[in-house]
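Chain and conformation:
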Amino acid sequence: MQFDTKIAVVIRADLQAWQKLNVASFLAGGIAAGFPECIGEPYEDASGTKYLSLIGQPILIYGADGPALSRALDRALSRNVTPAVYTEDMFATTHDVANREAVRAVQRTDLNLVGIAMRAERKVIDKIVDGLKFHT
């Protein structure tokens, strides 16, 4: 199925495995919160057990270094795409309020990004992630 929009997550490639999974999970939650229309219907198995809804389209995950993450953030913002962000400082916090404070304390150009996620028209996302490779 071809979607009009694309969801992209860009993760800093040098993170530990648990950090990558944590960042990707938080960022996907940001997409779900920002775009409730991308959430599908709840699931149910043949036994009648009910499960939560998921994002209803593929999420493409790219790997990048710090400068490439910053470049993707700049490209997103210049195209009026509001991304979800995760910074290295957020690994040291324990709750959402502290996460927001950690981001608010740093100028955008100085954010130590470890991941960003965004959803926009396919062609716009393609321009934002141009030059990045899928995460391995």
Observations:
- Residues 17-34 form the longest helix (18 residues).
